Every structure is written in C-alpha cells, then in structure tokens.
C-alpha cells in the first residue's frame, strides 16, 4: 500500500474514535500517526524491508502504532478499524464523506437531531434544523446540501496533493516501461487545480499494446473500466479513476494540449484556428487533410500566432489576450523562494524542536525563516503566553549562534479576536520581527462582521502578514464569509502581505483571490505553515497556487533577498 492509503486508514480510525467520544489523546495519537505517514517521503514498505524497528523511530510512533502500520502495509487491513466500523452506525460513517460534516458534527447531529442517514441529513438541512445547532450556520447548511448533491452524483474530487501521491508511483512504473517515448499527466492535474476528478495520463509510444498491458497490470488497480490498445480506464484501490491514452509521437503535442484543457481554453484556441482556416484537435493541426503541426504544444500555439502558454493559466481568463499582446507573466518558480514565513515548533502544536526546524531550513538553502508559534487563544495548540514568547525569543537567540547564513526571525501567529483586536499585547508584538495574524474561531460570523474583524486587525501597525485569509479546509470546511475585495484593499492601504498558505488542505488564498490581490498591487508570501520538518516540502503546492494566480517572483515578497525582505518588514 502507498503511504497515503495507510495514512487514510489511520485518519478513519481517528474519525470513528472521535464519533464514539474516545479519549482525545487517543484520537490525537492516530491523527498524528496519519499525518506522519502521509508526509513521509520514504515508502513505509521500504522502511519495513530495511529495518524492522525503523517505524518506531518516526515522530509520535511507538511500538503499538508501528505494529498496526506494519499490518496495514502488509495486509491492507486493520482489525481496529473493522471493530470501530461495526460499532458505528454506517450512516454516520457515510456523513463523513460530506464536506462540512466532521466527526464532532456527525455526532452532534446524531445526538441532538436523531439524524441517522444521509436522507435524514438532507431533510434536516433543507428544513433549516442544522443551523439551529451550536457552531453551525446557514452557510454551512448550504455547503452540506451541495455536498450531498455531489455525493448522489458521485462527483468526487480529490485534493491535488492526494491525487499526486496515488499517481506518482504509477507514473514511475510507466516511465520505466519499454516503448514509452514521452509521458505527461494532463487535465486539471497538469493545470495544478486544487482538486482533480479523473486523472488523464498521456503517452507517446509505437508499442501501445505493451504499454496498455503494463498499465492494466499495475499493482494498485482495483477495477478495469475499459481496455483497448490506445485507451484504458481503471479505478485504483483509492477510488481514483485514471485514464490512459496512447498516441503517435506526431500527435503528442496536440493531444497534450487537448487533454490538458481547460475546455473553455481549448474552445478559444480552436476558434482562433478556424479564423486561419485550420482544424485543431487532439490528433494535430490540419490545413484541409494535411497535418501541419501538433508534434509539440508549441506548434499548436504557433499555428494560431501565440507563444506557448503555461498550463496553470489555461482557464480562458485572459491568458490568450495576454499571449497575443506578448504580456504573459514569467511565473514564479519554487527555486525563487528564499524563505518560509510561517512554521510551528513543539513549543505549541509542532512536532519538531526549534533547533530541528532551523537545521532543516538551513539544509534547504533558505536565506531566512520566521518561527511563528501560536498565541494563547488557540488552546488546542497550546498557544504561548507573553512569557512563553519571551522564552522562545531567548531560544531563537541561542539558535542563531549555530547557523552561519540563515536569518532566523522571531515571529508569532497571533489570533484575531472576535472584535478584531489581537491576542498579544503591543509591547510583545513590538519585540517580534514578523507578526502573522489569523482567524481560528467564530467562523459563523456574518460577512460584514468578519470583514470588519479582519480589517481592524490589518490596521494594527505591528501586523505584517494575514495568514490563511479565508480559513477554508478543502472538502472539509467552507471559507468563512468575508468580503475579499475589502480585505485586499485594507492590505494594500496598510502595507500588509497576504499569505498563500501552502498546506494542501488549505491552499488559501485561492487562485482567483491571488489574481485579485496581484492586480490591486498587494504583495503576497508563500508559507508552508509547517508543523513538522517534512511539511516544509509543501512550499511547492503554494508555488503552484501562486502560478495559477498569475504571480511572478516580484509579486511574492519572500523571493526577495534577506536584506531587502527585512527592509520590507521595517517599512
């Protein structure tokens, strides 16, 4: 089993334990195990082969959890999960598929309203009964109804990072298959959309039957939907559908453009072709019956008088006009990042020490980082008091002596309280190099109230960055209602940077809001919000999101050199 599948097993155990009201520490242990496994770069299978005790050396994994992980890896099953599933009404488990309904809410709805099935959940939501429960409002009610409709239609979309974890080993296997000349994962995956439906893999080969056979024989295939020499469809054990298309080398570029999409972008390109008396489709670029292009994507764009357009921009949101005017942005790249401006240590809810996070960032070649543990309002994270931040300041002073080039900035992720004031006194804020402010509570405020709350926080002269500005968790929690146009204006007026939070389940801001901020002249930062060393790798997801928002390096503040960035903070 892939790491992501093992991690999901332990996440399911945590969900069921929480539904049943188990000890919170036990629930947290399984969630931490899931997070550790899910962010592990080395396959669990390899660890078990090389060292029988290697699992016990992972953070938060003792002998008992290590044994369970090994069992899941070897057999695909966990007896504890089976037991918990039998003890939990199946309908409550089904509710967890619906965005907005987590374990706590499923239990609350069950206990307070007697809701036992999805049909009853839908009826209660349509009657407005859910919004009467504590912590649930009309917005969440609408989200749940939308989720139920999608569930009925089986329109399931998977977070990009999760799809990537399932697809990566399949792609590696196919690349090593004899006869594969070129291979790309196309569709929304290649456009780096935050979620994907079916995954399209495109291959150029003169040995299509052999490539198809290798694809269908992949170890993780659960079901074959279609089988042909040039087109195959399967469902993996994760439930993700993957389609393989095999084309001739002469058509590869046009097929890659076609299957990358988006549909509106493709239609616009085809219409440009029609104006030039050309036919453009997945097989090539044709004048009459003669193919005049399509071996590469560049040939497709050149045929309609355009330069190559990066896949992330292909949404028909102005990229064709920009290309025609030769004004396409030079999109930011991962190598442009020089620092990470939100991360947590074991002083609050992180899993690594300050020294370990600093060493990991230095090894990545960063010029600067900010340590931003939580303020005290986030009780579940063990937020720091004023004294706690002073103690951490001394620890950072000590850590600075052990690094030669890395600048370690003193920071905090400070809660924005209900009235817009900050969860840390002005004197302590004044001692910090970087102040990130975020909303972690009262998501059910009205749009006007939430907007006023955040705008007031941005007016504070010591605030540098607004963290995860809309508070969403993809597929789990909708953004809180807020007027992003007003937030962007306030950020511009008060010189506050807006964060692109690179956590795969956040990706907050979304691409449209990033584009809005960029057009308004507001600079952004890409931060991982890492709670352990492995999560520092999430920076690439933030870069993907920034690219979809048309960002160049100059639009992202933490592409600046350390000296320039310090001047920006001071300014």
Question: If you had to describe this structure to a student in words, what would you say it looks like?
Answer:
β15, α21 (484-494) and β16 form a beta-alpha-beta unit. Helix content is 43%, strand content 14%. It is α/β, with parallel strands linked by helices. The chain has 24 helices and 17 strands. α22 crosses α23. The chain has 4 domains: 3-153, DNA polymerase, domain 1 (Orthogonal Bundle), CATH 1.10.150.110; 158-247, Beta Polymerase, domain 2, CATH 3.30.460.10; 252-324, DNA polymerase, thumb domain (Beta Polymerase, domain 3, 2-Layer Sandwich), CATH 3.30.210; 334-570, TIM Barrel (Alpha-Beta Barrel), CATH 3.20.20. The strands form 4 sheets. Strands 11-12-13-14-15-16-17 form a 7-stranded parallel β-sheet. The protein has a 5-stranded mixed β-sheet with strand order 2-4-7-6-5, sandwiched between helices. A 3-stranded antiparallel β-sheet has the order 8-9-10.
- The residue ranges in which pLDDT falls below 50 over 5 or more consecutive positions are none
Number of helices in the DSSP assignment? 24
Rounded Rg: 25 Å
Strand percent estimate: 5-15%
CATH topology of the largest domain: TIM Barrel
Number of strands: 17
How would you describe the shape? globular
CATH architecture of the largest domain: Alpha-Beta Barrel
Strand order of the largest sheet: 11-12-13-14-15-16-17
* Cα end-to-end separation: 51 Å
Regarding CATH, which class of the largest domain? Alpha Beta
Total number of domains: 4
Average predicted confidence as pLDDT: 91
User: Structural class, from helix and strand content?
Assistant: alpha/beta
Helix percent reads 40-55%
The CATH H-level homologous superfamily of the largest domain: Metal-dependent hydrolases
Sketch the major β-sheet. 7 strands, parallel
């Amino acid at each position: 089993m892939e790491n992501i599948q093992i991690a999901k097993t332990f996440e399911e155990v945590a969900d069921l334990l929480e539904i049943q009201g188990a000890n919170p520490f036990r629930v947290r242990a399984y969630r931490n195990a899931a997070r550790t496994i899910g962010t592990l770069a080395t396959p669990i299978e390899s660890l078990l082969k090389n060292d029988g005790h290697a699992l016990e050396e992972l953070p938060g994994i003792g002998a008992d959890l290590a044994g369970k992980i090994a069992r899941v890896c070897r057999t695909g099953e966990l007896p504890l999960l089976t037991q918990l599933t039998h003890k939990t009404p199946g309908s409550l488990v089904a509710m967890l598929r619906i965005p907005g309904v987590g374990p706590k809410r499923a239990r609350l709805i069950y206990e307070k309203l007697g809701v036992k099935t999805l049909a009853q959940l839908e009826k209660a939501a349509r009657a407005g009964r859910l919004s009467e429960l504590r912590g649930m409002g009309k917005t969440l009610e609408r989200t749940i109804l939308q989720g139920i409709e999608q569930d009925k239609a089986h329109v399931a979309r998977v977070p990009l990072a999760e799809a990537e974890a399932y697809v990566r080993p399949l792609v590696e296997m196919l690349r090593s298959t004899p006869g594969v000349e070129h291979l790309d994962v196309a569709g929304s995956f290649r456009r780096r959309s935050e979620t994907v439906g079916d995954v399209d893999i495109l291959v150029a080969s003169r040995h299509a039957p052999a490539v198809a056979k290798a694809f269908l024989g992949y170890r993780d295939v659960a079901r074959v939907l279609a089988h042909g020499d040039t087109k195959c469809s399967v469902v993996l054990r994760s439930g993700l559908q993957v389609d393989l298309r095999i084309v001739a080398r002469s058509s590869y570029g046009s097929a890659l453009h076609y299957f990358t999409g988006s549909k509106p972008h493709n239609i616009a390109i085809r219409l440009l072709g029609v104006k030039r008396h050309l036919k453009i489709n997945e097989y090539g670029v044709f004048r009459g019956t003669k193919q005049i292009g399509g071996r590469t994507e560049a040939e497709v764009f050149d045929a309609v008088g355009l330069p190559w357009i990066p896949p992330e921009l292909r949404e028909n949101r102005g990229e064709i006009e920009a290309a025609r005017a030769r004004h396409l942005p030079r999109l930011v790249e991962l190598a442009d990042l020089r620092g990470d401006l939100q991360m947590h240590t074991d002083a609050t809810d992180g899993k690594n020490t300050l020294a370990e996070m600093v060493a990991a960032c230095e090894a990545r070649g960063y010029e600067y980082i900010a340590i931003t543990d939580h303020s005290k309002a986030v009780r579940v994270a063990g937020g720091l008091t004023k004294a706690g931040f002073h103690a951490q300041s001394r620890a950072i002073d000590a850590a600075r002596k052990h690094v030669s080039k890395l600048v370690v900035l003193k920071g905090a992720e400070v809660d924005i309280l209900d009235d817009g004031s900050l969860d840390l006194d002005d004197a302590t804020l004044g001692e910090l190099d970087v102040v990130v402010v975020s909303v972690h509570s009262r998501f059910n405020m009205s749009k006007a109230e939430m907007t006023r709350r955040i705008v007031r926080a941005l007016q504070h002269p010591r605030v540098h960055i607004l963290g995860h500005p809309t508070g969403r968790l993809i597929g789990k929690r909708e953004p809180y209602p807020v007027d992003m146009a007003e937030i962007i204006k306030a950020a511009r007026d008060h010189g506050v940077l807006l964060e692109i939070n690179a956590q795969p389940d956040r990706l907050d801001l979304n691409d449209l809001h990033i584009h809005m901020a960029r057009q308004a002249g507001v600079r952004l930062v890409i931060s991982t919000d890492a709670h352990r060393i492995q999560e520092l790798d999430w920076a690439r997801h933030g870069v993907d999101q920034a690219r979809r928002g048309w960002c160049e390096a100059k639009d992202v503040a933490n592409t600046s050199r350390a000296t320039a960035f310090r001047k920006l903070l001071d300014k």
